Amino acid sequence: MNLSANEKAEILIEALPYIKEFYGRLVVIKYGGAAMADCHLKKKVMQDIVLMKYVGMNPVVVHGGGPKINQMLERLNIETSFINGLRVTDRETMEIVEMVLGGTVNKEIVTGIHEAGGKAIGISGKDAGLIRAVPVEPGGRMGFTGEVEVINPEIIYTVIKRGYIPVIAPIGIDADYQSYNINADSVAAAIAIAMEADKLVLLTDVPGLLRDPEDSSSLISVLRCSDIPGYVEQGIISGGMVPKVRCCQQAVQEGVKRTHIIDGRDPHSILLEIFTDEGVGTMVVDE
Amino acid sequence: MNLSANEKAEILIEALPYIKEFYGRLVVIKYGGAAMADCHLKKKVMQDIVLMKYVGMNPVVVHGGGPKINQMLERLNIETSFINGLRVTDRETMEIVEMVLGGTVNKEIVTGIHEAGGKAIGISGKDAGLIRAVPVEPGGRMGFTGEVEVINPEIIYTVIKRGYIPVIAPIGIDADYQSYNINADSVAAAIAIAMEADKLVLLTDVPGLLRDPEDSSSLISVLRCSDIPGYVEQGIISGGMVPKVRCCQQAVQEGVKRTHIIDGRDPHSILLEIFTDEGVGTMVVDE
Amino acid sequence: MNLSANEKAEILIEALPYIKEFYGRLVVIKYGGAAMADCHLKKKVMQDIVLMKYVGMNPVVVHGGGPKINQMLERLNIETSFINGLRVTDRETMEIVEMVLGGTVNKEIVTGIHEAGGKAIGISGKDAGLIRAVPVEPGGRMGFTGEVEVINPEIIYTVIKRGYIPVIAPIGIDADYQSYNINADSVAAAIAIAMEADKLVLLTDVPGLLRDPEDSSSLISVLRCSDIPGYVEQGIISGGMVPKVRCCQQAVQEGVKRTHIIDGRDPHSILLEIFTDEGVGTMVVDE
Amino acid sequence: MNLSANEKAEILIEALPYIKEFYGRLVVIKYGGAAMADCHLKKKVMQDIVLMKYVGMNPVVVHGGGPKINQMLERLNIETSFINGLRVTDRETMEIVEMVLGGTVNKEIVTGIHEAGGKAIGISGKDAGLIRAVPVEPGGRMGFTGEVEVINPEIIYTVIKRGYIPVIAPIGIDADYQSYNINADSVAAAIAIAMEADKLVLLTDVPGLLRDPEDSSSLISVLRCSDIPGYVEQGIISGGMVPKVRCCQQAVQEGVKRTHIIDGRDPHSILLEIFTDEGVGTMVVDE
Amino acid sequence: MNLSANEKAEILIEALPYIKEFYGRLVVIKYGGAAMADCHLKKKVMQDIVLMKYVGMNPVVVHGGGPKINQMLERLNIETSFINGLRVTDRETMEIVEMVLGGTVNKEIVTGIHEAGGKAIGISGKDAGLIRAVPVEPGGRMGFTGEVEVINPEIIYTVIKRGYIPVIAPIGIDADYQSYNINADSVAAAIAIAMEADKLVLLTDVPGLLRDPEDSSSLISVLRCSDIPGYVEQGIISGGMVPKVRCCQQAVQEGVKRTHIIDGRDPHSILLEIFTDEGVGTMVVDE
Amino acid sequence: MNLSANEKAEILIEALPYIKEFYGRLVVIKYGGAAMADCHLKKKVMQDIVLMKYVGMNPVVVHGGGPKINQMLERLNIETSFINGLRVTDRETMEIVEMVLGGTVNKEIVTGIHEAGGKAIGISGKDAGLIRAVPVEPGGRMGFTGEVEVINPEIIYTVIKRGYIPVIAPIGIDADYQSYNINADSVAAAIAIAMEADKLVLLTDVPGLLRDPEDSSSLISVLRCSDIPGYVEQGIISGGMVPKVRCCQQAVQEGVKRTHIIDGRDPHSILLEIFTDEGVGTMVVDE
User: DSSP string of A131-185?
Assistant: First the structure.
C-alpha cells in the first residue's frame, strides 16, 4: 500500500461524513476474544478506540477475560466448570476472577490505550457503586455468577467528561457487598441501556451471525428482532450466539440506537463498522 | 486508488499521532489565490478545514478576494491601480471592496464550510470591533488602504468556543469609523499574533520559497529569519513573496509557534502540512 | 429645550418604571425605510438601540436595504421587477442583493451601533445556519425570492449573551446551499417567533395603520387580529401594509407578546414605543 | 416642565455616554443627613440608586442614623454626649444604636429601594463577618465607639452578583464578639477601599467644601490632597468637614478612583454627579 | 463523663449513619422560648446549628423575640395586649417590634452562630422581598399583625449556597410596603413549605404534645394529622399548642417531609432529634 | 460505655472546633499493616475515613498489600526476597503484585468504604497516568521495584470533587509502559507533596517512634527533622522506621503541612490524631 500523501489525505476526507455523524456519540464496546488475546489485534483495537475519542466520540470499553482467568485457575489447581456458557463461580473462583479481571486484564487495557495515545481509567463494577448485581440463580449451583440488577453510571459520565476513556471490569456487587462475576456482553448491554448509548458493539470471534456457520459469505447483515425466535428455532442462532443476540435485542428494545455483533479478528473492525456505509458484521434492529 | 476498507482504516490510524499532537491547537489560515478561484480546489480546502475542526483543532480563516473585486470594479467601470502590490483605494473603490469581500466572498466561504459539514460564521473586521486600522500612508496616495493597528479577538474566542469556524474579511476600521482595505496576509498574521496561534498558514499559488523560481525542486523547506536579509538581497525573496515572508517573520518573532507558506494549488495542502512529518512548502522559523 | 440638570435627572427617573419592566426582554426590530435612508434618523435609531442594550434589554436588529440594492442594480444595468411587493430575483440579481445587504448595509448598521457606543456583530442568514429558506414560488417567476422555512437562533443567543447586538441581513439558504432573498419584515417576525421575543417592532414610513391614509389622526392604536379580515375587505389594510400586518398577526399568534408597526420617520420612535404609556403607532394584539 | 415625548427621549439619549462610561462600576454611597430625614428627598435618592443599578452600575449603600438614635435615646431617658463629633457609646447606648440602625433605619432604606423598583438586602457589619472593629480609644472614654479594623466584603460581592443592592448598617464587631458603633463615612470609605470601588460619594447637608461657608458660590470643585493641610490650617476645612475630607483622602490614596462630597439636599444630586460633565459638590483627588 | 479519646471517637462514628442520611438536607428551625432566653441553652442551640452546617445539612433559622419586645415596650411605656396568643400590633408597637427583632434579636443570633464557629447572615422578611404579608384581620383590631401571603426564598438559596446560615426575623411587608408582625412558627412553616424542606423543627418550652400536661411521661411521640381534630376536641391539643400543631400539619400536608415539636429546654434537643433513632418530642405526620 | 443521648450530643459538639479546622483539608493516608489485616480494625479505619469525608475533609487512601501478595506468591510457588525492606520484583512477581494489589486489595478497600457509607473509586497508578515510575536500581537486582518519578494528580482532583474517596494502588508505570511495584509509604508521600496536602498519615504497627522500642511510654511525640540524623546514628530510628521517617521528612520539607506516623492497631487512631489536641503517634516537623 504505497500511497502518496495526497491519496492519504483523500482517505481522511472520506471519513469526514462519518466523523460528523458520530460526533459526541456514546459507543459501548464489549472487548474480548481474539482481539484481546492477539497482541497485534489488541493494538489495532486500542488505536481504533483512541481515534474514536479524538474525533469526538465517547467510547466506553467493557472487557471480559476468560482465558487469563482459566490460566490462573489452572496454575492454582482450581477446577472450573461452565453451565450454558456461564462459569460456575464458587467463593474461591470468585476471588481469582476479580483479581485477574480487575488487577491484570483491566489495567492491561488501560495501558494499551495510553500506548495508543489516549487517556483511560480502569473501573471495576465495585467502584463508585457502578454495578449492582444479583445471583443468576439465587441459592443455586451457579454460586457467585451474577447478573446486572442496576447500573449507576455517574462515575462514567464524570470520567468521560474529563477526557478519559472508561474501561470497565464486569464485576458486580450485591446489597450485602458480595462480589459477582458477570458476563461481559450483558454488562456492556446494561451500561449501553443505562446511558442511552448510540451504539453497542460486541467484538466476537466470528464474522457475525451466519446462516451457515461453515460459510462466511452467508452473513446476515441485518437481523430483525422479530426474526430472532424463528432463527433460534431453526438453529441459526445457537450456542454462544444466543446470549449475544439476546443482549443486542434487549439493548435496542430499551433505547440503544444501534447494536452490532462484529468480528474482532479483523483488524480495525470497529472503525470499519463506524466509517463505512456497509458496516461489518450483523446489526440487530428493533423491527 | 482502489483500497480495501481495512487499508483505509490503517490510513486513518496513521493520522492519530498528528491528531493527538494538534488537539486543541489554534491554526490561522490565509485563504486566497487559486485555492479560492478553482471550484474543485476550494471544495478540498473547505473539507480540510472542517476535518481540522472535527479532530479537535481550532481553524480560523482569513480570506482575500482580489479577483472578485477586480471583476466588480470593471463591471462598474471603476479604474484601479496598485503600488507595491497594494491596491490604491479611493472612497468609491473602498465601498466596492467592502461590499464584495463582506457580502460575497465571505459568505461563499461560510457556505462552503457548511457544505463540507462544518458550522461557520462570517465576520468582517468591522464586526465586534475586531480590526482597528490605520492608513498605510496617512494623507497619501494609497487612500483607504490600511494596516492593522490592533486586533480585538474577543468575538473569535466566543464563536470558536461554541463550535463555529470564524471566517474573516480583511476590512478594518479606524477611530473615526472609516473603513480600510487591508492585505489579507497581514490580517492573518496579526490575528495569529493576537491569539498566540500555534500555526499560521498562508495559502499561495507557488510551491513555497524557491531558490530558482523556474525550478520547483529548489524549494527552501525551512527558512531561518536570520537568512531573510541575505535572500532579499540576492533576489531569492522578491516581488509578492516579500510581504508574505515578512508576515511570517513577524508572526514567529511575536509568538506564533509555526508559520508556513504553502501551495494552495495542491489539493489538501493544508492537511498535508499538518499530517505529514515532512510538511509541504516553506516553514519560516525564528532562528 | 433649555433644561436644568435637575430637570434632566427627573426625566431619567421617569424612565425607571419602563426600564424595570423591560429589563432582560428580547425585542426584535425590523429596521428599514426612511429611518435607514436618512442619516440623521439613522443616528437616532442607533442610539435608541444602544440605549436599550445598556438599560438591560436585548435588541435584535433585522434590516432591509431595497434602495441600496436598486442603486447598485441600476449602476450595473440590471433590470428588476416586483410582483405583489416582492422583488423578482434571478441569479444575477440574487448575487447583487446578497452583496449589498451583507457587505454594505449590514456593516453600515454595525458601524452605526459602534458609533453610538454599543457593540454589534453583523450576521447573514447564511452564517451559522441561521435562516433556512424555501422559494416562495418553487419553479416559478419569483426565482430566488424566498421565505423562511426554519430559524436556528443558536448564534443569536451566543452573541447576545456576550453583550453584542446582532444585526441580521435577510438572506436565507436552502438545503442545496442556494441563497434566497427574503422580505425583512417576515424574517424579523420569524426570528421573534423562534426566540419567543417579548416584542416585535416594524419600523415603517407611515404613522401606523390609518383608517384614512390621508388623515394621520385616524391612527388605529390597537388592532385586534379578529378585525383584520374586515379591515382588509374594507381596504383599510391594503398595499404594503397587508404583509406587515400579516407578519404581526402571525407573530402574536405564535407567541410573541407584543407587536408594533411604528413610524420610523419620527426620531426615537422606538424609545417612545417602549418608554411611554401610550406607545406610538399600531399595536397588533391576538384577540 | 412640559416636554414632549420626543424631548424626553432626547434627554435619555443624552445620558447614554455616561451610562456607557459607568457600566459595571462600583459606587459606594454614604447616605445620611437631610437626604435621609426628608421624605421627599429620600424618595429621590432611592430612585437614583435604583436607576444606577438598572443602567448597569453596582451601588453599595452605607447609612448613618444619628437623629433616629437620638430620638430613641431620649424616649428612653438615656443621656448621650459627643467628643470631636463621635458619640460616646456606653453599653446601654450601644444596644440602642444597634437596634435603631439595624432594625429601623436599615430596613427603611431597604423598603425605600423596593418602593423605587429595586431589590435590596440590609446587612449589618455583624452579618457574615463584614466589619471587624476595634475601639477608637481602647479602655478610654469613648466606650464602644469603634473604627474599622478590616472589611470582609465577600457577602457584598455575593449579593451584588445576584442583583441586590446591599444596604449596610455601620456596626462592627471585635474579636470577642463585642459590637461597636462606627462612623458611617469611615465605613463607606473602608468598604470602597476594600472593594476597590470606582467611586465613593458622601451625601452631606452642605454644597461641598466652601472657601467661605456663608457663600455657596465659593465651592471648591476639585480638592487636591496636597492642598488639604493648608486648608485645614486656614480653617477652610473645619468641624464636621475634617473627618469627611480625611475619609475621601484615604480612599483616593488607597485606590478608590473618584471621591465626592455632595449636597444631599439637592434632589438627584447623585445622578447629577454621575450624569453631568461638571459634576456637583467637591471632588477630592490624589494630587 | 470521663471518656477516653477512643470512646469519644466511637460516639462520633455512631453519628455517621445520621450524618449520611441528612447530608444536603434542608432543615428549618423555629428558634425561640427558653432556648433563646437562657444564655447557656442558647449557646448549645448555636453549636447544634453550626454542627449541622459543617456535617453537610442546610439549617435555616427563624426566630421569635417576644420577651425582648415586651421589655422594650415596657421601657417605653407602650401597653400591649394579646388576642388568641397573637399580639395586637398598632403602628407604634410595630415600630418597636421591627426594631427589636431586626436590630437586636436577629443580630444576637447571627453573632451566636459566629461564636460557635459558623458563618451567618441576618435577614428580615423585608429584605429581598422575602416575606409578603397580609393582615390577619384586615381592618380589624389586630392592626399590623400579619400572616404570610407568599414567600420568595431566592435570597435564602443564594446565601445557603455560599456557606452562610440564614437567620430570619418574622417581619413581613404588604403590597403597600407596610410592615407586619408575624408569628415566627407560621413563618418557619411557610418557609419550610416554600423551600420543600426536609424537616421543620419548632423549639418550644414543653416536651412536646402531652396527653396529660402534668405528666411528662405522657408524651405523644407521633401525632397523626387525622387524630388532630379529636385531640383538639378532647382538649389534649389546646392553648398555645393549637397553632403550633396547625403549623406542623400544614407543613406536612404541603410537602415538608418531617415536622417536629421539641423541647428547647433540653440542651442539644435539635441534635438529639436528628441523631437518635427515637428522636425527641412530638413528630407530626401526614396520616 | 452507657451514655445518655445528651452526653453523646456533647461529644459531637466537642468535635466541632476540629471539624471547623479541618474543613476542606486534604489528608493522604497510607493504609496498611495490622489495620488492614484485622477485620475489626479495618472496619474502624473505613468508618474514620468516611466520617472525615462527611465532615468536609478530603481523604485520599494509598494502600500496601504485602501479606496478600506473599500468600498468592506462595500459592503459586514463586519465591520472593527482600533487600533493605524492598521486595525484589522480577517479571513474574510483578504480575502477581499488580494483580493482587489492583484486583483484590484495592477493591476490598473500596468496598469497605461503601460498607461504611461512603463512595469510593479504586485507582491504580497506571490509570489516567497517575504514577510515572523509574526503577530504584536501573538494570540491577531489584528488577521492577520502582520509585515515583512524577505524580499527575488530575484524576484525583476529578474524583474528589465529585464526592468520591480515591483509593490508590502503589503501581507505577515507566515511559515504556512497564509496570513497577512501589513502596506505598513513598507513594503516599509523593501524592501528598504533589497535591500540597494538609496532612500525611502513615498507619503502622507501632505506637510511633519510640526511644526504647521495648517501652511504649518512650514515644517521641514530635520529631524535628534536624534531630533525625542523630537519632539514626543512635539507632533510635532504625529498620523499617528509617524509610517511614524519610517519607515524612521529605513531605514536610516539600510543602505538606503535617506528617504523622501513627499506630494502626489502635481503633480510630486516625480520628484521634485529628480530633484530639494531643494527637497520637509521632508528628514529624520541619525544624
Answer: EEEEESSTTSTTBTEEEEEEE-THHHHHHHHTTPEEEEE-EEE-TT--EEEE-HH
SS (H, E, C) chain B: CCCCHHHHHHHHHHCHHHHHHHCCCEEEEEECCHHHHCHHHHHHHHHHHHHHHHCCCEEEEEECCHHHHHHHHHHCCCCCCEECCEECECHHHHHHHHHHHHHHHHHHHHHHHHHCCCCEEEEECCHHHCEEEEECCCCCCCECEEEEEEECCHHHHHHHHCCCEEEEECEEECCCCCEEEECHHHHHHHHHHHCCCCEEEEEECCCCCECCCCCHHHECCEEEHHHHHHHHHHCCCCCCHHHHHHHHHHHHHCCCCEEEEEECCCCCHHHHHHHCCCCCCEEEECC
Instruction: Identify the CA nearest to E183 among candidates E143, E148, E138.
Output: E148
Per-residue pLDDT, F43: 95
Interface check for B268 against chain A (CB to CB < 8 A): the answer is: yes
CB-CB: which of D3, D9, D275 is closest to C9? D275
Phi-psi region of C61 (alpha: psi -120 to 50; beta: other; left: phi over 0): beta
Task: Please check whether residue D80 is in contact with residue D100, taking contact to mean a CB–CB distance below 8 angstroms.
Answer: no
CA D135 to chain centroid, in Å, comes to 21
**Element holding D189 (H helix, E strand):** helix D184-194
Pick from E106, E115, E155: which is nearest to D121 by CB? E155
CB contact under 8 A, B266 and A47: no
Extents of the domains making up chain A: 19-285
Scanning B60-99 for CB atoms below 8 A from C yields 72, 75-76, 95, 98-99
Q: Which residue of D has its CA nearest to E105?
A: D99
Q: Quick check: D1 pLDDT over 60?
A: no
Cα(first)–Cα(last) distance of chain E, in Å? Answer: 41
Of the candidates C55, C117, C272, which has its C-beta nearest D5's C-beta?
A: C272
Q: What is the pLDDT of residues B195-214, one digit of tens each?
A: 999 999 999 999 999 999 88
B23-75 pLDDT, tens digit each: 999 999 999 988 999 999 999 999 999 999 999 999 999 999 989 999 999 99
Q: Which residue of chain A is at minimal alpha-carbon distance from F163?
A: A128
CA F156 – CA F162 distance, rounded (Å): 10
Neighbours of D211 (CB within 10 A): 12
Collect all residues of chain F within an 8 Å Cβ-Cβ radius of residue A164: 128, 155
Q: Is the pLDDT of residue C221 over 80?
A: yes
**A19-285 belongs to CATH 3.40.1160.10:** yes
A117: CB partners within 8 A, 6+ apart: A50, A54, B16, B17, B20
ipTM: 0.94
Residue with cell 448597569: D56
C/D touch flag: 3 or more CB pairs below 8 Å: yes
The predicted pLDDT at position D251 comes to 97
Residue in chain F nearest E43 by alpha carbon: F13
Contact C28, C186 (CB under 8 A): no
pLDDT mean over B5-28: 89
Q: Is the pLDDT of residue B247 over 90?
A: yes
CB-nearest to A9 from B19, B56, B275 is B275
- pLDDT value of residue B12: 85
pLDDT computed for residue A276 by the predictor: 80
Using CA atoms, how far residue E287 sits from E47, E223, E273, E283, in Å, is 33, 9, 21, 12
What is the DSSP secondary structure assignment for residue C136, as one 8-state letter? S
- Of F147, F128, F131, which is closest to residue F186 (Cα–Cα)? F147
E277/E285 Cα distance (integer angstroms):
16
The residue with greater pLDDT, D85 or B125, is B125
Average pLDDT of chain A to the nearest whole number: 93
- Minimum distance, in Å, between the CA of residue B240 and any CA atom of chain C: 27
